[in-house]
Amino acid sequence: IGEVGFVAECTPSNQRLRFDHELGSRIALHASAMGKVILAFSSEDAESTVRSLGELERFTTNTQTAVTDLTADLKLIRERGWSRNHGERYEGVVGIAAPVFDASGKFVAAVGIQGPEVRVDQEVAVSAVLKAAEDLKGRLRAG
């Protein structure tokens, strides 16, 4: 696992108040909803995964930089099946993400929604990413 992930697909909002990442943008895994899904589902050993990242950069006051805090968050993400980023990379930006599995049940990708905190309804976003992840299940392969 590397320290950063990248944006492989993006559908921008048509709203004037929005938050976008360009295709190919590199994102610190510990400070994004999709990144935390990648960390949580790439290994059974959350603490070793977090320690392998080295020093965790602080982007905002909400960024998790303590190994114990991020490890606990990754365990919770695995239990509930989705991740939340609340201003951990950018103040005022919220993200929700879920894991995508291949036909054999192996984790292969993350799907997520992000936007300005004032526009993202967590309940609606969680439902949408879980549905998208289920729709993609078995349609993607690792590699």
Walk me through the structure.
- With 143 residues, the protein is of the alpha+beta class.
- The protein contains four helices and five strands.
- The chain has helices spanning 33-42, 46-52, 67-80, 122-136, and strands spanning 4-6, 26-28, 83-86, 93-101, 107-116.
- β3 (83-86) and β4 (93-101) form a beta hairpin.
- α1 crosses α3 and α2 (46-52) crosses α3.
- It is globular and about 35 Å long.
Write the layout of secondary structure elements.
Elements: E1 4-6, E2 26-28, H1 33-42, H2 46-52, H3 67-80, E3 83-86, E4 93-101, E5 107-116, H4 122-136
Antiparallel strand pairs: 1-2, 3-4, 4-5
Helix pairs in contact: 1-3, 2-3
List descriptors.
4 helices, two-stranded antiparallel ribbon, alpha+beta, 143 residues, 32% helix, 3-stranded antiparallel beta sheet
Widest sheet: strand ordering: 3-4-5
Main pleated-sheet profile: 3 strands, antiparallel
| Low-pLDDT ranges | 3-8
The count of β-strands is 5
Number of helical runs? 4
Overall 3D shape: globular
Strand content: 15-25%
N-end to C-end Cα span = 13 Å
**SSE sequence, one letter per element:** EEHHHEEEH
What class would the helix/strand composition place it in? Answer: alpha+beta
